[in-house]
């Protein structure tokens, strides 16, 4: 289903966020509560926390969540309902499902379509007045580190129409990437921690699972880590994992950041070694190495867009000293476009530079490991003279 925004509740208060509009007939909204106990204290029986309005199927909706029961007879239970957030002149037919973020089976579109069709009008709500007993919820795996995430899937069966006239307002452009970036930056509602090279990274299971099939299996599927508070990642530098998270939340290629360990090593250089260090350090070489590691991480966590972005960047950094290493990487991780660019680069070299390339250790490794690549280059070189 299309994404229809996120509402973040912290200590019983709705945090500021921009509106996300979903024009499709179906969509889902995420309801994140950070600081369950404080929120429960601030919302006694009969009081509800209201989500940010979200638009699905041409109508504005809100989620009403009560941690102590919406009605007096519901005390001791959590209540959750869906309501229209606008005036309509007729009932709206809707199918919906509330689930915790890890209840993937309940979020299947086919399952939603099999639920009961409910008619909703202005001023009414529908859902579960006694969704769960509070004590059962507090003992469940859904409450992690005093936080939890609810997903509301909505399918509007009524075509848009007969809506009472309302004053027109300018709807802000979707700002979901900034919102997710805010979650990563503030760690609000974070429910999983990774340890990478001695550094700790807090993240959100639902975001990782939505973006990566590998994280989905690791956090919610057959590979699930259970209730482990810290997941250890081996064979990856902190700067690479940090970039991986940044892409997952912001959907853009991040800039390389130097690891703390590298910074400490650089700070330890003396004045006598400064000139020598500057000669040995090549910013472009560091960037190429970092991009290669990030491409491997993107392949490892099934992030094809990030992998393509790394390929594009590496295509811009080809030179005699790096092309063999990059070609080796392209072969290992099935990067066809990157491989083509490497072969093309070698084909266009002058005879002198080509001789230098063929004498490098990297190219000798290519010739030994991937003879087909060498044959392909020979064919392309021959075509230059015919």
Low-pLDDT segments, ≥5 res: 159-168, 261-268, 272-281
Please state the overall shape, judged from the principal axes of the Cα atoms.
Answer: elongated
Q: Strands across the major sheet, in which order?
A: 2-1-3-11-8-9
* Major sheet size, sense and barrel closure: 6 strands, mixed
H-E string: EEEHEEEEEHEEHEHEEHHEHHHHHHHHHH
- Percent helix, as a range, is 40-55%
Q: What is the average of the pLDDT values?
A: 81
How would you describe the overall organization of this protein?
With 386 residues, this protein is an alpha+beta fold. 40% of the residues lie in helices and 22% in strands. The chain has a 6-stranded mixed beta sheet with strand order 2-1-3-11-8-9. Helix 15 (361-369) crosses helix 16. Mean pLDDT is 81; it is low at 159-168, 261-268 and 272-281.
């Amino acid at each position: 289903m299309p994404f229809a925004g996120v509402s973040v509740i912290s200590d019983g208060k709705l945090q500021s966020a921009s509106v996300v509009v979903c024009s499709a007939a179906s969509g889902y909204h995420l309801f994140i509560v950070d600081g369950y106990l404080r929120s429960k204290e601030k919302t006694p029986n009969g009081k509800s926390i209201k989500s940010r309005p979200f638009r699905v199927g041409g109508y504005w909706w809100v989620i009403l969540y009560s941690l102590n029961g919406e009605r007096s007879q519901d005390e001791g239970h959590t209540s959750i309902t869906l309501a229209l957030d606008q005036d309509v002149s007729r009932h709206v037919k809707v199918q919906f499902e509330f689930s915790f973020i890890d209840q993937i089976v309940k979020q299947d579109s086919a399952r939603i379509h099999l639920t009961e069709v409910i008619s909703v009008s202005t001023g009414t709500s529908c859902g579960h007045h006694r969704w769960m007993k509070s004590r059962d919820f507090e003992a469940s795996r859904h409450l992690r580190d005093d936080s939890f995430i609810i997903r509301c899937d909505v399918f509007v069966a009524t075509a848009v129409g007969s809506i009472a006239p309302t004053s027109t307002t300018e709807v802000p452009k979707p700002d979901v990437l900034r919102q997710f970036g805010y979650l990563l930056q503030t760690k609000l509602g974070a429910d999983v921690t990774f340890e990478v090279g001695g550094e700790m990274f807090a993240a959100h299971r639902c975001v990782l699972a939505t973006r990566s099939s590998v994280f989905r299996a690791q956090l919610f599927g057959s590979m699930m880590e259970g209730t482990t508070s810290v997941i250890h990642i081996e064979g990856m530098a902190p700067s690479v994992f940090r970039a991986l998270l940044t892409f997952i939340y912001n959907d853009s290629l991040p800039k390389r950041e130097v690891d703390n360990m590298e910074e400490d090593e650089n700070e330890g250089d003396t004045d006598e070694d400064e000139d020598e260090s500057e000669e040995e350090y090549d910013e472009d070489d560091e960037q190429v190495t970092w991009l290669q590691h990030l491409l491997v991480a993107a392949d490892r966590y099934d992030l094809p867009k990030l992998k393509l972005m790394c390929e594009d960047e590496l295509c811009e950094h080809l030179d005699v000293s790096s092309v063999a290493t990059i070609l080796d990487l392209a072969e290992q991780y099935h990067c066809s476009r990157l491989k083509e660019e490497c072969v093309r680069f070698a084909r266009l070299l002058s005879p002198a530079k080509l001789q230098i390339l063929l004498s490098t250790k990297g190219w000798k490794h290519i010739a030994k490991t991937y003879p087909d690549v060498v044959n392909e280059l020979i064919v392309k070189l021959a075509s230059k003279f015919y």
